[in-house]
Specification:
The chain has 234 residues and is an alpha/beta fold. It has 8 helices and 9 strands. The chain has 2 domains: 120 residues, Ribosomal protein L1/L10, rRNA-binding domain (Ribulose 1,5 Bisphosphate Carboxylase/Oxygenase, 2-Layer Sandwich); 84 residues, 3-Layer(aba) Sandwich (Rossmann fold), CATH 3.40.50.790.
């Protein structure tokens, strides 16, 4: 297969079979991110869990110290007394029955939905639309809460939720290639520490089986899963 100039450069400077320290991997990610747009930096962590068993599902939220670099479009489903709180916190869309109708008609042009608890009986009826898109609010992810303003601010500041997929892998975007190296390292270590903290008691054997970093247009770079260059959570 004929390689492009960029691919030849990557092959020459990167050993794709090697396990790199996080700081080394971040430097390589930034070096190879030369697209005309600001590439996302993504992480994939393969875990020694069986998601078919409820007691081995790894799911949670984490606030990245340096944000994700993305503009998060937030819809707040709330009744009148909570609407101004949501607007003041920076939510792009705020409403109740009007937005339930828009979603029913097929509108889902948002990234996160935050809902007041007293709206879930109605919003829950739209599960077939929102569920497959990962938009259904959930108390465990902090998106069903009476503290609407705080939830909006946290999401805007870089709070993300994640869940292991059927193959035992957790995927997430953890920043942009334009971030400085230290900011990316801080986001990555924060994310990994949270995954370690959430290790299910039912998980036996090796928990962290593999970690890969990549940019939107770049190759996957393997991380040394001994994680000796970060302070892990107990």
């Amino acid at each position: 297969m004929k390689l492009t100039k960029k691919q030849k450069e990557i092959v020459k400077s990167t050993d794709l079979k090697k396990d790199y320290k996080i700081t080394e991997a971040v430097a390589l990610i930034k070096k190879h991110a030369k697209a005309k747009f600001d590439e996302s930096v993504d992480i994939a962590i393969n875990l020694g869990v069986d998601p078919k068993h409820a007691d081995q599902v790894v799911r949670g939220t984490v606030s990245l110290p340096n944000g994700t670099g993305k503009t998060v479009r937030v819809l707040v489903i709330a009744k009148s007394e909570k609407k101004q709180e949501a607007i003041d916190a920076g939510a792009e869309h705020v409403g109740f029955e009007d937005y339930l109708k828009k979603i029913q008609e097929g509108w889902t042009d948002i990234d996160v939905i935050i809902a007041a608890p007293d709206t879930m009986s109605e919003l829950g009826k739209l599960g077939k639309i929102l569920g497959p898109r990962g938009l259904m609010p959930n108390p465990k992810s902090g998106t069903v809460t009476p503290n609407i303003g705080q939830a909006v601010k946290e999401v805007k500041a870089g709070k993300i939720d994640f869940r292991v997929d059927k193959n035992g892998t957790v995927h997430s975007s953890i920043g942009k290639a334009s971030f400085d190296e230290q900011s990316l390292v801080e986001n990555i270590t924060t994310f990994i520490n949270m995954i370690i903290k959430l290790k299910p008691a039912a998980s036996k054997g090796t928990y962290i089986k593999g970690i890969t970093l990549s940019s939107t247009m770049g190759p996957g770079i393997k991380i040394d899963k001994t994680l000796t260059d970060i302070k892990t959570a107990a």
